[in-house]
TrEMBL record, chain A:
Family indicated by similarity: Belongs to the universal ribosomal protein uS9 family.
A Pfam match: Ribosomal_S9
Cellular location(s): Mitochondrion
Name of the protein described by the UniProt record: Small ribosomal subunit protein uS9m
Automatic annotation (TrEMBL), chain B:
CDD domains on file: At1g26750
Molecular function, one GO term: structural constituent of ribosome
Keyword Transcription included in the entry's annotation: no
Recorded family membership: Belongs to the mitochondrion-specific ribosomal protein mS23 family.
GO biological process: translation
Coiled coil, from the record: none
Domain of life where this protein originates: Eukaryota
Organism: Eumeta variegata
Annotated protein name in UniProt: Small ribosomal subunit protein mS23
One GO cellular component term noted in the UniProt record for this chain: mitochondrion
TrEMBL record, chain C:
Protein name: Small ribosomal subunit protein uS2m
Stated family: Belongs to the universal ribosomal protein uS2 family.
Originating gene: MRPS2
Taxonomy, superkingdom: Eukaryota
GO molecular function: structural constituent of ribosome
One of the GO BP terms on file: translation
Record keywords, A-Z: Mitochondrion, Ribonucleoprotein, Ribosomal protein
Subcellular location: Mitochondrion
Length: 353, 170, 243
């Protein structure tokens, strides 16, 4: 038996590190081969397209592939592609330990070190705040009233986002623990002292519902404000709706008035957004519509009017319209007929024999 | 320098370990230079008892009950509901109420009083102390009360001046 | 208290029997000029890290109630005070010094040391200790197989710890921490603070003592940190010498 001191002089690389280095070498060799093949393929493509292989970029490759292998497959991911190997193959996990096999992270053995480090940091901050609180009380100082933490406009990051931040999988239970711990930190009186830390895990509550900008109305020669909504779609109907304000409640559909629709139902559909916002007498509506039946056409106009009215109503009404479903596009289309049955869902009468 | 790896599960049957490694080295299953890092230290400083799941049963000896001679007096005080109070374990400065009583007891005993007399005397002493602390607290409270504070702050002479000023404003 | 103090002050002068026995087996004789730390009964002077009074002040002597006593903990007891078990701190000190010495030696050899604790109240303290002495901590839910199936768990061959320090060996009040069993399976030595309701059987260096009170845990953390840092310091010197 050699003693430890002598063994240590040999400076053997740890088995874990050896295994990692072997894997890394294998991966590097594989990637080199792939890169070589990609370069050759690119030159071939350039020759086929009759272009200079030296200045053939990735954009040109994509164009060439689309031209040479036209594909009608719906999912773009399933179409033929030629991308650099770094984009196609997953990146190799970096070594988490040094040459002696000692992990870098002190919570490595928990399996999710980054997440537990985050919890550790939260507690660390909390304890710091407790100490600060004690200090303030001992000195009988008054806390800064202006430095409070305002979290009204933000939310905690979602689970997926947290996973991305930590580069780790986060289970539901762990996520709940994270939220609980963060809430406790925020509830402390001096939490503003760790504003930076807290805000790293907050996401602004920008209303995604109205992420689309509401257009400012244009003005015609008479000085009336107007907004035109193109592509008002419902079923197979397609139309353009223009709203003019101020107006008297005149509705013109394809050159006719509301009697363009013979039935009560489509007329109600067209009037609904105007009545809902209480603007049936203060705006004029002009719509040209084609395709589809009366349900589709009236639905398309209804959506177009609601969409155009956004420019003329206040924020409260906007929220109400959203809740009423006026701003939601109806994407339903006719369901196809199935073979072996008379309709999309309808089955022929069942007879025993 | 080598260590345990997940790949090498050296034992599954027994939970004691040093004999296992020594056996492996002896039989050639493990190279002596590949021995675990702790092996030499373990040999040099073996634990007091061999770590083994099936340890021999301990002697069935009754557990020693801890009593002190002053426990008799302590019990007598407690029976009179003396010396029972809360103890702050976070701030371990100062003696517990019982300990203070026992010190008093020793003092009085030296003076040659009998046990009953001592208990009686202690009772009176504690009553006195209680009264004193209560009255002291009351006066403290009085001083701290809101009206007292205001009275000390307010200038009695100017009270009427202030009201007259207000009236002038009206 | 005085008994232990005397015993450890004598240690410096004498050489233990077992150290003499094993040193002949190794190649120390080839390098007679190099002084082997293992020859010294207390190379890192861990005996001066604490006194029995420190243990007493940190309330290490408090055990649980008599009803929850584990039979194998009987030899470590001093007695029972009105139903509450009290540890013999002389015995505790002896075991603790042994454990500290072992930890320091492991740190000296560059071993991976991991701290365990399943008590939420003390978890942060333990993690902080681990961070401060550059070692590792696991105070969370124990996923089975971290030791026994580590290649799968971490997705690669992984070096396992060389020493596990349990600041409490129980998972909850009823069950033992699975890592105690797993480290025994994987031949990883363990140091464990065992209370009167815990089993010391498969722990290599059990330290009988209170494992609940924060003050006590604080003391253990401080001691283990000091011992490990002493070991690491010596290691630094050793590495500088060899280079």
């Amino acid at each position: 038996m050699t003693d430890w001191e002598t063994l240590n002089k040999g400076k053997k690389i740890n088995k874990a590190m050896k295994a990692y280095l072997e894997r890394a070498k294998e991966h590097d060799e594989f990637m080199e081969k792939q890169q070589f093949e990609y370069k050759i393929g690119k030159r071939h493509l350039a020759n086929m397209m009759g272009e200079d292989p030296e200045t053939f970029t990735q954009k040109d490759v994509d164009r060439a592939i689309e031209y040479l292998f036209p594909s009608g497959i719906y999912d773009p991911a399933a179409r033929p592609l030629m991308k650099p190997p770094e984009e196609v193959f997953p990146t190799r996990k970096a070594a988490e330990f040094d040459e002696a096999g000692r992990p870098f992270h002190f919570l490595f053995y928990t399996g999710s070190p980054n997440f537990y480090k985050l919890l550790y940091d939260i507690v660390e901050n909390m304890q710091d705040l407790y100490r600060f609180d004690d200090k303030v009380r001992r000195k009988k100082a008054v806390p800064d009233p202006n430095a409070s933490l305002n979290l009204d406009a933000t939310l905690w990051v979602t689970k997926d986002h947290l996973e991305k931040l930590l580069v780790e999988k986060v289970s539901d239970l762990k996520y709940n623990n994270f939220i609980g711990a963060m809430d406790r930190l925020v509830a402390l009186p001096y939490s503003y002292r760790h504003k930076e830390f807290i805000e790293k895990y907050r996401k602004s509550l920008s209303s995604q519902r109205f992420a689309l900008e509401i257009p400012k109305p244009n003005y015609d020669e008479n000085g009336r404000a107007y907004v035109t909504t193109y592509e008002c779609l419902r079923k197979s109907a397609r139309g353009v709706v223009t709203i003019r304000s101020p107006g008297t409640g005149k509705i013109i559909i394809n050159g006719k008035d509301l009697t363009y629709f013979a039935d009560i139902q489509p007329r109600e559909q067209v009037l609904f957004p105007l009545i809902f916002t209480g603007m049936q007498n203060s705006v004029d509506v002009e719509a040209t519509i084609e395709g589809g039946g009366y349900t589709g056409q009236s639905g398309a106009i209804r959506w177009g009017i609601a969409w155009g009215l956004r420019s003329f109503v206040d924020k409260d009404m906007l929220d109400k319209m959203h809740v009423a479903g006026l701003l939601t596009r109806d994407y339903r289309r006719r369901e196809r007929k199935k073979p072996g049955q008379p309709g999309a869902r309808k089955k022929s009468t069942w007879k025993k024999r | 320098m080598s260590s345990n790896y997940s790949g090498i599960s050296i034992t599954r049957t027994s939970l004691s370990r040093n004999p296992q490694v020594e056996g492996l080295i002896k039989k050639g299953a493990m190279k002596p230079d590949d021995r675990p890092l702790w092996f030499d230290i373990y040999r040099a400083f073996p634990p007091t008892d061999e770590p083994k799941f099936s340890r021999p049963k301990t002697e069935n000896k009754p557990i020693k009950q801890i009593f002190y001679p002053e426990d008799v007096m302590r019990a007598k005080f407690h029976a009179q509901k003396l010396g029972i109070g809360t103890v702050n374990m976070l701030m371990s400065t100062g003696d517990t109420p019982t300990k203070k009583l026992l010190q008093k007891y020793d003092k009085l005993k030296a003076e040659g009083l009998s046990e009953d007399e001592i208990i009686q005397k202690c009772k009176e002493l504690i009553e006195n102390e209680k009264q004193q602390t209560l009255s002291k607290r009351k006066t403290d409270l009085k001083l701290k009360s809101v009206t007292a504070q205001i009275l000390t702050e307010v200038n009695m002479k100017n009270i009427f001046d202030a009201t007259s000023e207000k009236e002038n404003e009206k | 208290m005085t008994r232990v103090g005397r015993r450890f002050s004598e240690l410096d002068g004498q050489v233990c029997e077992h150290t003499m026995g094993c040193s002949a087996m190794f190649a120390h004789d080839i390098y007679p000029q190099h002084k082997d730390p293992l020859d010294h009964p207390d190379y890192f002077h861990v005996h001066n890290l604490f006194t029995v009074k420190d243990l007493f002040d940190a309330r290490v002597h408090y055990g649980h109630k008599e009803g929850s006593l584990n039979e194998h903990m009987k030899p470590y007891l001093y007695g029972s005070r009105l139903g509450h078990l009290i540890f013999d701190l002389d015995i505790t000190a002896e075991h603790l010094r042994k454990a500290l010495n072992f930890a320091a030696h492991i740190a000296y050899r560059g071993g991976v040391i991991i701290f365990f604790n399943r008590n939420a109240q003390n978890a942060h303290l333990v993690e902080k200790t681990a961070l401060e002495c550059g070692e590792y901590a696991h105070t969370r839910f124990w996923q089975g197989g971290i030791f026994t199936n580590s290649t799968r768990q971490f997705g690669a061959v992984t070096r396992l710890p060389d020493l596990c320090i349990f600041l409490n060996t129980q998972n909850n009040i009823l069950n033992q921490h699975t890592a105690v069993r797993d480290s025994a399976k994987m031949l990883i030595p363990t140091i464990g603070i065992v209370d009167t309701n815990c089993s010391p059987n498969i722990i290599t260096y059990p330290v009988p003592g209170n494992d609940d009170t924060p003050v006590a845990i604080e003391l253990y953390c401080k001691l283990f940190k000091a011992a490990i840092l002493r070991g690491k310091e010596e290691r630094k010197k050793f590495l500088q010498e060899t280079e």
